[in-house]
Automatic annotation (TrEMBL), chain A:
InterPro entries: C-type_cytochrome_biogenesis (IPR051263), CcmH/CycL/Ccl2/NrfF_N (IPR005616), CcmH/CycL/NrfF/Ccl2_sf (IPR038297). Keywords: Cytochrome c-type biogenesis, Heme, Iron, Membrane, Metal-binding, Signal, Transmembrane, Transmembrane helix. The lineage of its organism: Bacteria, Pseudomonadati, Pseudomonadota, Gammaproteobacteria, Cellvibrionales. This is Cytochrome c-type biogenesis protein. The chain crosses the membrane at residues 103-121. Belongs to the CcmH/CycL/Ccl2/NrfF family. Residues 1-19 form the signal peptide. GO terms for molecular function: metal ion binding. It comes from the Bacteria. Gene3D superfamilies: Cytochrome C biogenesis protein (1.10.8.640). One of its GO terms (cellular component) is plasma membrane. Possible subunit of a heme lyase. GO terms for biological process: cytochrome complex assembly.
Automatic annotation (TrEMBL), chain B:
Belongs to the thioredoxin family. DsbE subfamily. PROSITE patterns: THIOREDOXIN_1, THIOREDOXIN_2. This is DsbE family thiol:disulfide interchange protein. The keyword Kinase does not apply. The keyword Lipid metabolism does not apply.
Amino acid sequence: MKRIVLSCVLALFSLAAGAVIETYQFDTPLQQQRYHAFIEELRCPKCQNQNLSGSDSAISKDLRRQLHSMIMEGKSDIEITQYMVARYGDFILYRPRFSSQTAVLWLMPLGLLALGLLVWWRMASSRKRVQLSADEVLSQRDQERLRALLDDDAERAEERS
Amino acid sequence: MQRLKLFLPLLVFVLLAAVFFGVERRVMTGDYAPTDLPSALIDKPLPDFVEPALSDGRPINKSQIVGELFLLNVWATWCPTCHFEHPFLLKLAAEGIKIVSIDYKDEAEAAKRWLAEKGDPYSLTLFDEDGSLGLDLGVTGAPETYLVDAAGMVRFRYQGALEQKIWDKEFAPRIAELNAQGSTP
């Protein structure tokens, strides 16, 4: 019983499996690792938002085959990336390289973080200013005015009673 | 001033709405397609290749097709949009536009039958059975059409079916410009 429950619970946590149908043979586990890293990181050029491992389109199949043969030929990761970018542009990289075109993409989060910190800092400092002014000791003139007002009140109270 | 600050979220909303509405309009009118991928080959030379001709299988290399401005059309018999595009290509060919084509990941017999039945607008058809030339060109599907100038440089790539409207808007001005440059070097 325990086992059944456990396996049901585990099934809830199963990770999404890639939809790749073909199986490729590799000489070493490292080659296989590189292949899987690449199909996760490269984007299907025909699809709107899928990587090569998740896409069943013809072009993704071709690119996977090409990737496999390049890995088997002993091409380095940089050579493979260059090959893909030369044909499909930066679009194919899920992690686009930093360039004038992608600067906004990379710098925007930092910019927004800086903006957020600025707003937070300004809000915090203005709150502190309000507290400070409330705690401030009254000036000589203010104190005289306060005393006058209080005396006034006291006299009026006496008159009424 | 403090009051005006309250309208800030509204202002942001209006700005964003204007941007999204603008983009959506451009998608509707066909000015902008989010699925279009800029070709990595623009203003770069056509990649070298050797591919068999569809008609007789003789090997063709790049130098045999480069020399004057031409269109490089990627098609296949399995591609429904290519059926739609075909009559317009025949019209272009009749107007004297040189069109070289790539029969992309197709079956030779079906492709030959297609050209025999529907007419052949191509001065030459390369048979790219395994899609290797397509890969070198950065083809993502069919149909696609590349504009290659006399020097063998790729100047423009269009993804989708050619038709008169697209021809007038995208191709004709570019060809006129390239021809003007070519005549006054």
